[in-house]
Amino acid sequence: MERMNIKYRIGGFDLTQFVPTWDGLEECENFDIKSGVDFAYNFEQNVIKNILNIEFSHKQKTALKIQLCTFVAISEDSVASLEKDGKISFPADFLAQCASFGHGALRGIMYLKTMNTPLEGIILPPVVYGEMFKKPVMFERKTVE
Question: How far is residue 142's CA from residue 57's CA, in Å, rounded to a whole number?
């Protein structure tokens, strides 16, 4: 598969959920981690949104729930090369790159927001998103009637 040269810039981050629930949680280092990754695309603004959902729990008790949205603005010429017949397709390696932006930012956010709390030592492990995404993702322009 040929790699595409997509021109983009990070448009911002939105921490839509950060809910620590450590009341009654004993100090521990072994957390179970559930995670989810999703994408959305805004055709009017040429922005792909990566949504990361992370939940840390211990003994089936939630310790921390996080949702971070990362916005990546795609250049007009890249959109023109990717869009056809009202559909736009992003290659797997580009999706992995977008997810990595959010993941890295989230690690820093967690460090700052858990300082001097019972969750101070909690670590979001690195993820190799390139191994996770194998297929391109296509978005279709919706028409409102």
Answer: 38
Are 64 and 55 within 8 A, CB to CB? yes
Whole-model pTM over 0.90: no
* CA–CA separation, 78 and 74 (whole Å): 7
- Residues 6 or more apart in contact with residue 52 via CB below 8 angstroms: 35, 36, 37, 66, 67, 68, 69, 70, 99, 102, 103, 106
The H-or-E segment that residue 63 falls in is strand 61-74
Q: How do residues 103-129 score in pLDDT, each as one tens digit?
A: 999 999 999 998 888 888 888 888 889
Beta carbons of 136 and 89 less than 8 angstroms apart? yes
